[in-house]
Amino acid sequence: MSKKIILLAGPTASGKSKLAIQLAKKLNGEIINADSMQVYKEFSILSSRPERKELKKIKHHLYGIISVKKHFSAGDWLKLTKDKIDYCHKYKKIPIIVGGTGLYFNTITKGISKIPHIDSHTRNKVRNLFKKLGYELFYKKLLDLDSKVKNKILPSDSQRLQRAYEVVLKTKKSLFDWIADTKSDFINFEVSKIYLDIPRDELLKKIYLRTELMFENKCIREVKKFNSLKLKNSLSANKLIGIQEINAYLKGSSTLDQCKELINIKTRQYAKRQNTWARGHMKNWN
């Protein structure tokens, strides 16, 4: 009998965590986090990590495990998730992987390319070239090296352009050839895929209520603690919605109401991007 895995995705604030707990109770499951911001130890409130009372009901894995000071990639997440999936199956539990980070789910359903490590010298060389040329000239130069990039990466997508450039420079092989050779490690598993898509009006209401709850739970204090760490801007944790907006409020650039409204707007925009991404990458999900 094939081993089971349940994937549960959906936009932010759609009610995934609550549904995951209901499924886990019904199916004798355990929950594995697939949200790139909920992995951080320092952010339980702004990342909307499940509350302690929820964590007590069902065993949860990979929540609050990494310091914001560290880089944490989709590959790092997959490695830890494989161990947790094995752990669940060993104890006859169904792993329920829940979150809103599409790239994490892609590593399960499509696999992750085995691109060799790109050394810092090559990476810096590419970054400096991009700064020197600007994205339009850089894009043209990349096409000379890797014609397969055309119509697959937008000239304005600076992050992916630089990634494609460093890969072809280091490996002499197109990023898209590496992707084509990629296979999922879970081909022989029974994988159920659920995408939680709720009506827009209901989602907007939930986003508003969640923002209010964050402030009740003292998310401002959480941001102040984060600020005291004085992290590099390049670290992923800086992208968490709420940090920039709360810092603007702390500096006196906005009122508390304006701060909350900006967080609501950014969260709505993020939910929209998640739904758009899902339409392209999760077409066969229920």
Short synopsis of the structure:
By secondary structure, this protein is α/β, with parallel strands linked by helices. The chain is built from 11 helices and 5 strands.
Q: Any overview of this molecule?
A:
There is one protein chain. By secondary structure, this protein is of the alpha/beta class. The protein folds into three domains: 4-113 and 183-195, P-loop containing nucleotide triphosphate hydrolases (Rossmann fold, 3-Layer(aba) Sandwich), CATH 3.40.50.300; 120-180, Histone, subunit A (Orthogonal Bundle); 200-278, Helix Hairpins (Orthogonal Bundle). The protein contains eleven helices and five strands; from the N terminus they run E-H-E-H-E-H-E-H-H-H-H-E-H-H-H-H. The chain has helices at 16-27, 52-57, 74-90, 102-109, 120-145, 158-171, 175-180, 200-216, 219-227, 243-250, 256-281; strands spanning 4-9, 29-33, 60-61, 94-99, 190-195. Helix 3 (74-90) crosses helix 4 (102-109). The longest helix is centred in the middle third of the chain and has 26 residues, at 120-145. 31% of the residues are buried. The mean pLDDT is 95.
Kindly list the characteristics that best describe this protein.
Rossmann fold; 11 helices; alpha/beta; 3 domains; Histone, subunit A; 286 residues; five-stranded parallel β-sheet; globular
Tally the helices: what do you get?
11
The N- and C-terminal alpha carbons lie at a distance of 23 Å
**The CATH superfamily title of the largest domain:** P-loop containing nucleotide triphosphate hydrolases
What is the averaged pLDDT score? 95
The biggest sheet amounts to:
5 strands, parallel
The radius of gyration over CA amounts to 20 Å
Shape: globular
CATH architecture of the largest domain: 3-Layer(aba) Sandwich
How many strands in all? Answer: 5
- What is the percent of helical residues? 40-55%
Strand content: 5-15%
Q: What sequence of helices (H) and strands (E) makes up the elements?
A: EHEHEHEHHHHEHHHH
